Amino acid sequence: MPKRLLVVESPGKVKKLSQILGADWIVRASCGHIRELSDTGEDSLGFVINDGSVKCNYVPRDQRSKETIQQLKAVSKQVDEVVLATDPDREGETIAWHLKEVLGLREPKRVIYSEITASAVRSAIANPRKLDFNLVGAGLCRDCLDKLVGYKGSPLVWALNNGAKSVGRVQSATLHLICQREREIVTFVPQDYWSVWVDYAEGFRAFYKGTANSLSDAPETETEAHDDAAGNNNTQAPESKRVLSEAEATRLVEEARQHPHQVVHVEGKTVYRQPPPPFITSTLQQAAGSKLKLAPDKTMVLAQKLYEAGLITYMRTDSVMLSPEFCAAARQWLEEHDPQNVPQQVAKHRSAKTAQEAHEAIRPTDVFRPSVQLRQELPAEEFDLYVMIWKRAIASQCRAAQLCKTQIITHSGSLLWQARGQVVEFYGYARYWNNLSKDSVLPLVQQGQALTLENANSEKKQTQPPPRYSEPKLVQLMERKGIGRPSTFAPTVATLKKRGYVELTKGNLQPTTLGLEVDDFLQKALPDLLEAEFTAKMESALDAIAAGKQSWQQYLTTWNQNYFAPALVKAKTVVITPSSAKTSLAKRKYDTSKTRCPECNNFLAKIPSSKVKKKYFLKCTSGCANIVLFWSDFSKSWQPPRTQETKPENHSQPPAKLSSYPCPVCKKPLEEYSYTKDGQNKTMLRCSAASRQDKKHKDVAYFSTAKGWWSPKFGELNSEGK
Question: Which residue intervals define the domain Topo IA-type catalytic in the entry (predicted)?
Answer without folding.
Answer: 132-568
